[in-house]
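From the methods appendix. Each design record in this collection lists the tokenized structure first, followed by the designed amino acid sequence. Records were kept in a plain field format so they could be parsed without special tools. The example shown here is representative of the layout used throughout.

RECORD:
FOLD TOKENS (171 positions):
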């Protein structure tokens, strides 16, 4: 985790700062988009990394998720989209990333996120994690709930970018 004194040092540097925001993004939600936009206020580049897990059955293929994210962020050159199926700390080191970005909802995320940040830090001392509190109007949104609503024919338009809504309507 980054504490205030480390944040000041991190952002006083004249070097370009990069962050990675990893997740399954199946599908990406407006809550995820909010975290990316806020991360861009602190970092010069944000890499959105679609974590590929063979154990999870995806609703949207990794290739389609990548295409959709590229379309969603086509007007933001500071956002890079990538796929990764290894340890996030290896991606961080390979790409000279400065920080891992994570969102926190007031729904019990902290314990899991703290454990993951601690493990990443143990695996690589270079791994700093920056937490963003989810916007108060988006905290209840999750990919799992969006999938559940969609599977029952509910309207997911208020919870996802229009590209995701349009794609899922056609699927």
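DESIGN:
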């Amino acid at each position: 985790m980054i504490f205030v004194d480390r944040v000041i040092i991190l952002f006083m540097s004249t070097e370009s700062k990069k962050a990675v925001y990893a997740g399954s993004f199946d599908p990406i939600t407006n809550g995820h988009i909010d975290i990316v936009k806020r991360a861009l206020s602190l970092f010069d580049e944000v890499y959105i990394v679609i974590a590929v897990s063979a154990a999870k059955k995806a609703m949207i293929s990794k290739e389609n998720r990548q295409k959709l994210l590229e379309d969603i962020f086509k007007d933001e050159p500071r956002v890079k989209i990538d796929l990764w199926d290894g340890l996030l700390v290896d991606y961080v080191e390979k790409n000279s990333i400065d920080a891992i970005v994570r969102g926190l909802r007031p729904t019990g995320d902290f314990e899991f996120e703290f454990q993951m940040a601690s493990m990443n830090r143990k695996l690589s001392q270079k791994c700093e994690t920056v937490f963003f509190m989810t916007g108060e109007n988006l905290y209840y949104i999750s990919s799992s709930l969006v999938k559940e609503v969609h599977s029952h024919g509910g309207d997911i338009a208020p919870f996802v970018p229009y590209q995701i809504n349009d794609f899922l309507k056609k699927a």
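APPENDIX NOTE: Residues 105 and 139 are 5 Å apart (CA to CA).
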